[in-house]
Amino acid sequence: MLDPAVEAAARALATKLKASPAIAAFWQAKAHFDANEQAQSLMTELQERQQALLQKQQMGTLTQTDIEPLRRLQSEARNSPVIMAYQQAQQQAQALLPEVNMGLSKLLGFDFARLAAASGL
Q1: Torsion, Cα of 49, 51, 57, 60 (10° steps)
Q2: Where do the domains of the chain lie?
Q3: For 60-111, what is each residue's pLDDT tens digit?
């Protein structure tokens, strides 16, 4: 059972993280992406095409002709303001996490991220 003081501190940290500009921007961009069927469809098609090409590459049957539709989809994704905003917000939110881990590690006196990774958290 988690110590109530630790749980309260973790909840306070989560609340502050959710309110941080990077995390708030991520959730806003994700909501816009989730509400945009065209962007979702494009990303699904892109992921499926990437998977299909990976399989062809592993089988040794990948040709240059197979790659062109992927490049077209990648270009469409790069030109989508919704997709690009979501990806940029995601990158900014991810960039915040090492800072959080470093702050926790400093306060705890050990590498929190490494311990969490080793324990499967």
Answers
A1: -90
A2: 43-79, 81-121
A3: 999 999 999 999 999 999 999 999 999 999 999 999 989 988 988 888 888 8
User: 12: exposed, middle or buried (C-beta count within 10 Å: 0-12, 13-18, 19+)?
Assistant: exposed
The interaxial angle of helices 81-108 and 64-78, nearest 10 deg, is 80
The pLDDT tens digits for 33-56 are 999 999 999 999 999 999 999 999
Tokens, residue 11: 């909840």
Q: How buried is 78 (Cβ within 10 angstroms: 0-12 exposed, 13-18 middle, 19+ buried)?
A: exposed
Beta carbons within 8 Å of 49's beta carbon, 6+ residues apart: 69, 70, 73
